[in-house]
Amino acid sequence: MQVEALIFDVFGTCVDWRTGVAREVAAATGAKGLEIDSVAFADAWRGLYEPAMQEIRSGRPYTDLDALHRENLDTTLGRFGIATHFNDEERAALNHAWEKLPPWPDVVPGLIRLKASRIIAPCSNGSIALMTRLARYGALPWDCILGAGIARAYKPDPRTYLAACDALRLEPAHVMMVAAHNDDLVAARDCGLKTAFVARPLEHGTGQVTDLKATSHWDIVAADFPALSAHLDLRSHD
Amino acid sequence: MQVEALIFDVFGTCVDWRTGVAREVAAATGAKGLEIDSVAFADAWRGLYEPAMQEIRSGRPYTDLDALHRENLDTTLGRFGIATHFNDEERAALNHAWEKLPPWPDVVPGLIRLKASRIIAPCSNGSIALMTRLARYGALPWDCILGAGIARAYKPDPRTYLAACDALRLEPAHVMMVAAHNDDLVAARDCGLKTAFVARPLEHGTGQVTDLKATSHWDIVAADFPALSAHLDLRSHD
To answer: Is the confidence metric ipTM above 0.90 for this complex?
Structure first.
């Protein structure tokens, strides 16, 4: 198994979006003396992500995730009954919450180790702008930024995975998709990529019921990123 | 002057393509017992770069620089009378010379300093694949890879500069183009970007006659990348 590049899902797989967004929401609402459940707000905001991308997949012209997040923020503020408390500028500022998400503790040391012998890049639905600022925030040592921003298509659209391979001038069989979401890996495997699953059982909090384990025979199933690196080192000697 | 991101020309500005390519050519021809002037070969190979890009600007469908370099290698091998000595696989290997170019000595320390407070990215005519591998070779600490690869257009086409700003979600006035080539900066300034000139008087060897100095009033003219960083730090306190 010759893997020359690893591409990564980011929200949930590399970073803890729920904790990060809730923290920013708590700061923004707290400063106004508003009392809301910031974790519930984060879940509601994120809950509008999939339906928004589905609109794009169904024919709406490609709109980057920053703009979709902003639309979804407006909706979520309304649902929580606090829309009148946030003007346009404040909403734009809060939308940057998605650029300030903490990496899971194993991610940076794991990526550094993986990068020593292979290209590493995000293959996220986030824009280049978002992924670039998120990388700076969390010290994610990417070699380049791939994903929806270069494909102008959202995962699991095959074009997103294939554009990442094309950009690196690599055959899909030499590229491994790493994700905490089984459906992401299904789509990547259908494009001919190698696959690695790393469970993130706290992505949705302690009550999480989805993606607690691998639901297919992925090429690698690893406990965390350093373990993924160790698996790859072993395999490369096969 | 609020500069949130710096984007860089790479061949000549960040890396010494002439020395790097000549070294790879010398190794490849030496291994076959061929005696050629490897620096002259590098100059001839590079000399076909501008005409090849001009074809694209004149209507040839976008073809990435790796493919153009390969076509130009075939031509150059013919001109040096050594075409029959290199099969397809060997030509493909030699084409990777463009991914193994030494940075000028000030570049890596300068980029590390600049990156501390601003986004840094290449805005080169090289592909994402080429720029990614070149960054790994030379430890260039880019935040992301911009340029022709995301614009599918070659500098000085305005789309290349504007696509870089768009990808970062920044107004051109908040992005600075850094180059050792005055014509690159003319085109960037026409798009509304800020400009910085850093002379590279040895890019074409000791007999260089072009771009030895700034030929316009660029926002910054600096001796090297650390000096550019110092200029920016001073200006940000204006």
So the answer is: yes
